[in-house]
Specification:
four-stranded antiparallel β-sheet; alpha+beta; 4 strands
Length: 76
């Protein structure tokens, strides 16, 4: 989410910015980068997944979906 300082005021803007930074830092701390591959072999980087979810996807061979109906597999 984005907001503009004139809309929320400088103090609220600073608070929201810092809270957003902390949330993203926490999400990065508990997830790891992964690569996914489409059925045509095209790979996509820049995605993240938690270790328990990664283990479950691998164990159960769960297909992944990103922005639509195209299926991907987790590259291990």
């Amino acid at each position: 989410m984005r907001w503009f300082e004139p809309e929320v005021g400088p103090e609220t803007h600073q608070t929201l910015t810092e809270q957003t930074r902390l949330i993203w830092a926490a999400l990065r701390a508990v997830t790891r980068p992964v690569v996914i591959e489409a059925s045509d072999g095209r790979r996509t980087w820049g995605l993240r997944i938690g270790p328990a979810a990664r283990d479950e996807v691998i164990r159960r061979q769960v297909p992944l979906v990103r922005l639509g109906v195209q299926r991907f597999r987790l590259v291990t």
